[in-house]
Amino acid sequence: MSREYFTNQILNVKKEVLRMGEMVEEIIDSAVVSLKTQDLDLAKKVIGDDKEINQLELEIEKECMMIITLQQPLASDLRTIASALKIITDLERMADNAVNIANITLDIGKEPFIKTLVDIPNMAKIAQEMLKLSLEAFVNEDLELAEKAAMMDEKVDILYDTVLNDVLDIIIEKKEFTKQGTKLLFAGRYLERIADHSTNICERIIYMISGKLKHIN
Amino acid sequence: MREQSKINIKNLNFYYGEKQVIKDLSLEIPKNEIFAILGPANSGITTLLRTLNRLCHLTPEARQEGEVFLDGKNIFDSDVSVTELRRRVGMVFDVPTTLPMSIFDNVALGPSLRGIKSKKILEEEVEKALRMSALWDDVKDRLHTPAARLSGGQQQRLCIARVLALEPEVILLDRPCSALDPISTAKIEESLMQLKEELTIIIAPHSIQQAGRIADRVAFMLMGDLIEEGPTQDVFSVPKDQRTNDYLTGRYG
User: Which domain holds residue B12?
Assistant: First the structure.
């Protein structure tokens, strides 16, 4: 195989995207755990970790721009680099949403919850699974897995509707719960967005593998 | 929408003696477009170009099967005048081949051989051809100096002008910029982009990037086989065949 140096550069971008994805997976987990367990220190850690993710995004972007400038990639290489550039944007936004959740943890503090948190952690679980599967699809260039991961978004949307209705019921009954209720609603909304970004990533992976550009859902 | 095709190649096979260099190739080349043919060395690209105006038949032991239609007329038919065919389908080679005479005479030679005697008309033809090949401004004050004094890029533009003076309908360019610097290359590419309004251009580019910059459509050839062809953007971003992908990503061989 010729162009070994170039091949390694592309491989390296893939590795870095994967590393960034794993960091995002972790930060989402920490954010939701911090909310559920009211762990304020963990929430602060999430905010700090986000800076590292932002930094990595810039580094990967630079690497991609360097490859485009110096190697003028085409065909499957071009699709890989173009996809990597889009994927890291989604990953970075996912991390931002995790930070938003961590900020809600800090806002609520040690105040007792107005309801037991079940659906929100469940949303997080699915969103994390989506991200995990999509990263696996990215590394193994697995079209079917990318499609499967994207389809999971619907479950997150359904759970979000449940959270919305539950919290609204509580607020209608007890106005004094409005403040925390709204915050929990936002937390749900952020997780719903995280799952949407995962879907975007799946779309990118499908393009990378097949060359077909399409919106899922 | 697919434009009307200028050249239609049907089941073309080409042999030098026992060696087959083009294998059952069928291809339509649309009018008023730049069509690039890519492929590694020894893929039959030069032979294909040289078949389109029957230059290949100058090689002993060369023979072909199949048909090549130019505006619907098979160029291999016995009633086709080869001289007229080569006027209609001009060719520019990789090494600039200026003739040992003045800049003016290099361009005027074709029209004067065609019987144009009027000095005034010849001057007009030469100026028109030199303008079309983007060389006029460089040479208008020294038309009667030897062509050999021009730079490589200018010589190549002169060769294009010489072909254009014959008012061809198709021009074949075999790696016309392989020995040129980026500025001369850009000038030639720019003039090709303008020329396609009036004629059909088939080019074997010296680099993949050149095809990307100028070609409307590209074809990929490998060892005499046409692997795939299509709009440049499609082939360059999502090639259908793995071999095309390997070639474009530099992993071929």
Answer: 5-248
